[in-house]
Amino acid sequence: MNFLNLTKLSFVGSLQRYALAIVAFSSFQFVNAQRYLPNDQKLLFIGQDVASVEGYRANCTGCHKGHGEIAYLSFYTLEETNLDAGPGRVIYYGGIGMDNNGNRDTNNTRWGAGPLNLWSAAERYPLVAIGLSIVEDAYFGQDGLNQIINGAHDSKIVKMATFFNQFPSNVFYLRIGYEFDGNWNRYEPTKYVSAYKRIVDILNANLSQDNVEYVWQSSTSPVDDILDGDKEDITKYYPGKEYVDWMGLSWFLRANENPTQAPIPATQLELANELVAFAKLEGKPVMVAESSPQGYQIDDKTNCNISPGYDGAAAQGCANKTATVLYEEWFGELFDFVAANDEVRALCYINADWDSQFLWSAANNYQIGYWGDTRVEADAEVMNLWKGSIADPANKFLQSEEPSDILNILSVDDVATNDATNFSVYPNPVRNVLTVKGGVDVDTMPYQLFAIDGKKVLEGISTDGAPINVSGLTKGVYMLKLGKSVAVKKIVKQ
């Protein structure tokens, strides 16, 4: 669910099933060309606001602290300070925690849904998954996508790059226009793709190091399909594999839950499986980028209706649950999905008392549905079950919590090789001369440089440390293949 979208949801239309269109698989593939991905292990992110994360770390006794934190940015307000956005909503630089001169700003942005400050998140965790809202609405971002495409907001993209450059040891997973297919965002596919690409291109041209991963996140939501009256073809929103490092999905409902008030759409599990199938086809890892048991109140151990258009009046029809039943019917199903899919390499869990935050609460008439209290530490038995799930070898979560361990594991370049171990390239992004260093058992290194469409543009043999002249290449993204191995590195030519 879009954290920054304040639009009231109205459930309309009918629903029809249809087969997900699958794009043709490219004849050229970069095998396992993934960075920042622990070998055969999975990452855990906690969110979704500063207070919720602090509460988890302070009160979830003995829990895994997580490898990363979830944060959110309001793109169109990144250069605005002390902006009154309505009752209880004050914006400071879109939640980035940095003023327009590159200095830290300690003020937290508040949307009535918990404090946001990306700088604080980056200091607390080595990895940060960022939801970048580019939603167009009458208050912020009217005609925003066209403005992004036409370059009117380039300074905001450069500001994000300036922020990322301040944290060269962090890795940022940027979810551009997250839940791109969500009815509540109302993105037109062609505009969304063009805006997404421009954000990536401007960022890559201004990053001083390669520490941003680009995540393409679907809503994978039955609620979206009810709102749309149909299940859209998500590939219409796809910017292409050269612009996507990860594919993301949202998971808020039970795996096989059906609505009671509308025609039956595809289930949460069916939609998630379709996204995983597409990711597998494109050779991308999957991030469960937002997850939370919507409608559950963990402290009271109840499950209530979400919305009139789905299952009944919000916060009504509550059923009492034991801790074990509550956990198994939502968390158990989620972890079954995580364990069953090797492509799923990261889980982002929203550990929040939603009902205490104005945006999601009765005080706001549950305009965005009923969410409840999803803090795992709110019940001792649920907390212990959570600890067991994270420690369970079947779920393959990386057990180390130390930032240095996490970054050391992620810095290894992701792939099995046959004549190269690890090698480095610098500078990256590069303008004229690229240096390749180390990683092979011979004195010379044959190399090949491919355009993102698979066309070979350069090849040769470079002695260890000798430069490769790339000044004649056009700006863009390339892949460098070293030796006979399948090891590749993404190169950004400025």
Q: Can you walk me through this structure?
A:
This protein is of the alpha/beta class. 23% of the residues lie in helices and 22% in strands. It contains 10 helices and 23 strands. The protein has helices at 50-59, 118-124, 144-149, 154-166, 189-206, 222-228, 268-282, 323-340, 380-391, 403-411, and strands spanning 43-47, 68-74, 83-84, 89-91, 109-111, 115-116, 127-133, 171-176, 212-217, 246-251, 286-291, 296-297, 302-303, 319-320, 344-350, 372-373, 424-426, 433-437, 444-451, 456-463, 467-469, 476-482, 488-493. An 8-stranded parallel β-barrel has the order 1-2-7-8-9-10-11-15, surrounded by 5 helices. Strand 8 (171-176), helix 5 (189-206) and strand 9 form a beta-alpha-beta unit. The model is unreliable at 3-33 and 412-421 (pLDDT under 50).
Number of strands: 23
Q: Oligomer, anyone?
A: single chain
Q: Helical content, roughly?
A: 10-25%
The profile of the biggest β sheet is: 8 strands, parallel, barrel
> What shape does the CA trace take?
globular
